[in-house]
Amino acid sequence: MARRSRGEARGYFPERGPSSRLPMPPALARPRLAVWQFLWLCTAVQVAGAGTSGALGQLREAATSGDAKAQLQLGLEYLYGSSRTVAKPKEATHWLDKAVAGGDTDAMVVLAKLLREGSGAIDPDARRSLQLAEKAAAGGSAEGMDMLAEAYHNSIGVGDIPDKKRKKLATKWLKKAAANGAFRAQVQLADSYREGKQLAMDGELALKWYEKAAATADPLSQTSPKKVSPQALELIRKGSAGPGCTSRNTEPFEGSAGPGC
């Protein structure tokens, strides 16, 4: 079975087309926090506010009592370490497994990602990673859907299924993830329509999904997307409806608006 390299994990379509194509809107090209990193940031803020080993004990007590969110938070704290505890990979996986058993979809996504790449005490297990992503997606997790789309596109843990079926499933989950607000999926779906990969070229739909992604990008920032994305999206608008066009056309996406309308 073909395995993708680490470089391919950043997107569904690692091979890009000619540089003459429209650039990615700057607001969308900025690094974003993965869900497990964001959750860890939330944990770190709470840790900074507490700052005592007693607070860690309270968190552990809540986790021991069966609180899935506490189990996830404790797992993340042991995974990355903090001001009140060193990283303890085995403890981390123990509590993440508990959170998964408790039905927490965020924990499923975190553990699925760790199992896909392998980390510390966790050996890579692509099949279990896929199963966790499926479970998270079934629970409504957009990040789980996003992981499924990538897994099917790059044949990660999906078994020997016909290429046609595999690509169909990749597209299905890509669309679901984008519709449910997964930023990366929205960008990848826009790229697919812009470049004609997996889906037929469609400038109007490419623009729609770039706009949705721009609205999703950096929810913690109050300024940067609003300053950058309107100008970038205007380039896409010009590319999808050049001079003399009676309707939007995908041809100009190979370059600038103009001939080919």
Q: Are there runs of 5+ residues with pLDDT below 50, and where?
A: 1-10, 14-33, 43-51, 220-229, 240-261
Biggest sheet: strands, sense, closure?
Answer: none
Using DSSP, what is the number of strands? 0
Helix content: 55-70%
Order of helices and strands: HHHHHHHHHHHH
What is the terminal separation in angstroms? 42 Å
Silhouette: elongated
**Percent in strands:** under 5%
Structural class: mainly alpha
Assembly type of the chains comes to single chain
- The whole-number mean of residue pLDDT values reads 75
Count every helix, treating DSSP H or I runs of 4 or more residues as helices: 12
Rg (CA only)? 21 Å
Written description of the protein model:
By secondary structure, this protein is mainly α. The protein has a domain at 33-124. The chain has 12 helices and no strands. Helix 9 crosses helix 10 and helix 10 (183-195) runs antiparallel to helix 11 (203-216). The longest helix is centred in the middle third of the chain and has 17 residues, at 163-179.
